[in-house]
Structures are given as structure tokens and as C-alpha cells.
Write a structure and sequence with these properties.
73 residues
């Protein structure tokens, strides 16, 4: 998947840690998804992290359900 916002920030070199917020993703098979994300970091285990993506609208919710069903089969 690709995020236009991430690509833009990465090209400026001004990338910083951000653990929550909205994100637009561009999935190669299903197109644009609008999600909120949260990242939990484990201070005593820096190699572990939990990322949660929640759809922001009905269209993204349906697409994520479709992708989940594909992954399960």
C-alpha cells in the first residue's frame, strides 16, 4: 500500500514519530482507503509494536472487509 502523505513527507526529509492520526492509503488492488491509525510501542521491547487501522468511512469499511475475507481464504 502507498500513502500519498507519507511519500510527500518522506521526500522532504521531515519525518517524525507519530503514533496516532488519520491516514490515506492507496492499495494496489482496491484503491484509496481512509483510516485512523494507532501505534503502540513497547518501551522495554523496541522490536515489538502493535499497529491498528480503523476505517474512517463506510466505503473504507467495506473494502477492508473484502481484503480481510481475501486474506482468510
Amino acid at each position: 500500500m502507498r500513502s500519498r502523505a507519507f511519500s510527500r513527507l518522506w521526500s522532504t526529509g521531515e519525518v517524525a514519530d507519530c503514533t496516532t492520526g488519520p491516514m490515506d492509503l492507496d492499495h494496489p488492488d482496491v484503491g484509496c482507503l481512509d483510516v485512523d491509525y494507532q501505534i503502540w510501542l513497547q518501551p522495554d521491547s523496541p522490536d515489538h509494536r502493535l499497529e491498528v487501522y480503523t476505517p474512517r468511512d463506510d466505503s473504507s469499511r467495506k473494502v477492508l472487509s473484502l481484503l480481510s475475507a481475501r486474506a482468510s481464504s
